[in-house]
Amino acid sequence: MNKTLQLHRELLAFASICNEAASRHGKFLGRPAGTPEQVRRFMEQGFLLFQMPTEIGLMELGARQLLDPLGIHGIPDSERAVY
User: Fold this and answer.
1) Would you kindly state where each structural domain of the chain is located, as residue ranges?
2) What DSSP letter does each residue of 46-62 carry, written as one string?
3) HSE-up of 37 (CA within 13 Å, CB side)?
């Protein structure tokens, strides 16, 4: 998931409009979230359902917590496959 695109100004403005409409109609609103910090921030905005990373993404997050402090880094996001 491209974290930069998830925080794009136009997307955030549109999400706010959708959230207001969902609230008016008694519906729950969801969106992708790649980190616990994003989940917290989006919950503050009124989102309640989240699409989270796959098992591979979760394994990557765990590996980063262990390897980053050792100076071992993976493939830069700019060189990663989109899928």
Assistant:
1) 3-75
2) T--EEE---HHHHHHHH
3) 3
| Residue 77 CA neighbour count, 13 Å, CB half | 6
pLDDT exceeds 70 at position 39: yes
Model confidence at 27, pLDDT cuts 50, 70, 90, reads: very high
Give the chain's end-to-end CA distance (angstroms, integer). 9
Residue 18, H or E segment: helix 9-24
Write down the pTM of the prediction: 0.54
pLDDT score recorded for residue 15: 84
Residues contacting 47, CB < 8 A, separation 6+: 15, 19, 29, 30, 31
Residue the block writes with tokens 């616990």: 36
Q: What is the sign of the dihedral through the CA atoms of 11, 1, 29 and 45?
A: negative
- Does the pLDDT value for residue 3 go beyond 80? no
